[in-house]
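Researcher: Next entry in the queue.
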Amino acid sequence: MKAFGEVEKVGTLLRDLNCEWYVCGGWALDLFLGRVTRSHKDVDIAVARRDQSSVQRYLLRRGWELEKASEGRLSPWAEGEELGLPLHAVWCRNRAHDPVFFELLLNEVDGELFRFRRDLSVTLPRPRVSFESAAGLRVLAPEVVLLYKSNSAEEGGADFHHAAPALSREARAWLKGALEKVSPGHPWAREL
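Model: Structure for this entry, 192 residues:
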């Protein structure tokens, strides 16, 4: 199996989706680096919150079971139900597919700006929010992935130490500024 086989299979599933989507989480960092740095429990996919209805219809038509995650519990994501903040995670399962599971994460995007869910004043212009991997997959920018992972610096530490040295000067500056705003004194900001 190819190194990125699991994430490429999810990419194949979503190739006809009529909205922007990005690989995010640990797989995004590995795609950024061009190598697998650790094992992954699942594939995470990010979409703009405004596109949630399209994504929901697309997956339901293909036999996926969708559950929204809230306060450590899962409950069915009813067809046509709009998920607002703070809800952002949807578990997607289909036993007839390989892989049988991936996680869908709703992101705040308005006009030409990405807004960080935990502090909407932290923004990034949409052209900088993603890149295309060598495998042809759209991938959430590593600085955004690391900002999300900073919430659990201990758990995300290995990801940070693999990816941070490869960030561009611009990406490092943005991540450092964002960390200083949302988590003053965060140890990663000092390392950047």
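Model: The longest strand covers residues 101-110.
Researcher: Noted, moving on.
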